Amino acid sequence: MTTIKTLVSAIVFVAIAMTASGQSGDFKSYSNFDFVAGNKVLVFDDFSSGNIGDFPVQWNTNGSGEIVTTEKYPGKWFLISPSSMTYLNAGLKPVDNFTVEFDIVVNKGIDEISGEERDFQISFFSTDKGLDGIFPTSLYPGISGIVLNFVTVWNNDAQETTSVHSFKAYNNETEQDISGKNTRKTNLLELGKQYRFSFWVQKTRLRLYINEEKVYDIQRAFPDKAKIDQIRFWTPEYEETSIYISNFRYADATEDSRSVFLTDGKLISYGIYFDSGKDILKPQSYGAIKEIATILNENPTVKVLITGHTDSDGDDKINLDLSKRRAENVKKVLVSEFKINADRITTDGKGESEPIADNITAENKAKNRRVEFIKQ
User: Fold this and answer.
1) At what angle do helices 286-298 and 316-338 cross, to 10 degrees?
2) Contact, 107 vs 191, CB < 8 A?
3) What band does 248 get if pLDDT is binned at 50, 70 and 90?
4) Would the pLDDT of 210 be above 50?
5) SS3 sequence of 30-68
6) Is the distance from CB of 48 to CB of 76 less than 8 angstroms?
7) Domains in the chain: boundaries
8) Stretch 327-354: mean pLDDT, rounded?
9) Whole-number Å distance between alpha carbons of 364 and 29
10) E strand or H helix that includes residue 323
11) What is the mean pLDDT of residues 284-298?
12) 257-375: which CATH topology?
């Protein structure tokens, strides 16, 4: 059964067109993208350490799922099967400010007989007393939180649907709820296309970006002093409705990057992304690079050394060269897009020679893949 399901998932991906988002260095469509990933990685899972056909060890579910590969999208993916509520085993370490990012593909989200849209949900919530209450029949788990409902469409033909993305922020203690929706149909999810979801939480506020577009900016998504400690994916029971996720990243976004760079003299960025094994910057790096550019523009006498680092995968000489080229490409963007004087920027690369964590787990490898900005 596992082999058949894996084969089916591969076939499905072969039949669909790959989105161009995240596959080039073109930043123009991301010029309004202000998302900045947290710089302290708490959870990372690209499912690379798991075996094909196995359920990933960091996750749990009341349904089913497995790790798969595809012929269309690189790396390993976590297939979350229909009729499943899926969550992190250890939950999210509660911090006031955090970011959550992942790649996602939605498959078979429409009833082919009726033509009606089928959705899926993502929830952030406070369990308060641990993991109890994650699997109630209610769609609103825990003490308080937010449920976000996402709509899928065929070929992004928004004219054929009246549905839009929606949300409900709830408090099961006070029974005070806030509901809303995004009325723009341009951000509805096409079946089979890869998207990047980026969530940014600052205390009560939640922002969501799908690729470069800000879909939500909800000021009161959570109650005051709420300790958000869990994320849950829900897929409906309709046959073949499933989602695929990869490159899941949860990070503490508490630190003030400007203060860290100017006071401590070194800022480590995990929000600058490259194609695997390449020096091509992904567009979702825009917000992090813009943040550095703003700091440099506000402090025109400050110079900076940009240093690239890799994990230990691959040949050490290749990694050394790759890290140097990546740092140089960050410089090029700062100069061309943000008009920073090139004389203020020098670059270097250390490859895998200066890890800040062991290279055993996917999470620690993610910590080692970084770009450092050192004040000169």
Assistant:
1) 60
2) yes
3) very high
4) yes
5) HCCCCCCCCCEEEEEECCCCCCCCCCCCCEEECCCEEEE
6) yes
7) 2-251, 257-375
8) 96
9) 31
10) helix 316-338
11) 95
12) 60s Ribosomal Protein L30; Chain: A; (3.30.1330)
